[in-house]
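ok trying again, last paste got cut off:
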Amino acid sequence: MTFANITIMDVVKSSTKKKLHIIDFGILYGFQWPIFIQKLSHLGDQAPELRITGIEFPRPGFRPAEFVEETGRRLAKYCDRFKIKFQYQAIARKWETIKIEDLNLSSDEVVAVNCLFRFKNLLDETVLADSPRDMVLKLIRTINPDIFVHSVISGSYNAPFFVTRFREALFHYSSMFDMFDTNISRENQLRMNFEREFHGREVMNVVACEGWERVERPETYKQWQVRNTRAGLKILPLKKELVNKLRCKANLYHRDFVFDEDGKWVLQGWKGRVICASSSWVPA
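nice, full thing came through this time. structure:
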């Protein structure tokens, strides 16, 4: 989240345009943006108008977009508090069906595409011949953004064979729970809620579901690099000052937290195992 916010802010500061359009694939609750809005307010008169297009998967029922619309209302209140001009558009549909016309792009705005850890929920070519992952990446290339920030859960538990998938999921989630055990008491109610509502559902989906029903499908950051490059995107080098800032943050926590760089990706993990990775891209 810090990597994404700093990267987008650097693009804003280097541009003469007075509008910023963030297209957030997988906005969920919008937790990423309050601190970013606060940082924008520090620019004073130089702060751009902010427009966010929040994209989510549709919820079941008669109001598939209600959840993502509520996120927009919360962010609007936050922008009012910090005197940032704000517009919001909610899109709740299958991501691969979104067309560039749906995004209402304008030539007078800085366009930043953002996706934090949610591409893993898109189906791949093992389920559909026309991979939704590749279709969304091609859409992003067509958008021609000033920056695309891509953060992924780096995992290998997307194999079509159950035993391989189970083993890789075991390794991944063992690292996660070991990290929790080292830093948070098992009796902590917030931890128990988080494990049940998030990791519990993820593990159940990985182990018990197949085909269309299995929505937890992570790939390694190296596999994502191949996909992104094939879609016509070019990875940007990491800025030394940004890496140093993130490394200083990591040093404030337990010594077993991993912070590293590889192939222009920032890597984070636990006890030598990479859990997530972040990078920034532009059209090639």
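cool. The longest helix spans residues 162-183. The chain has eight helices and nine strands.
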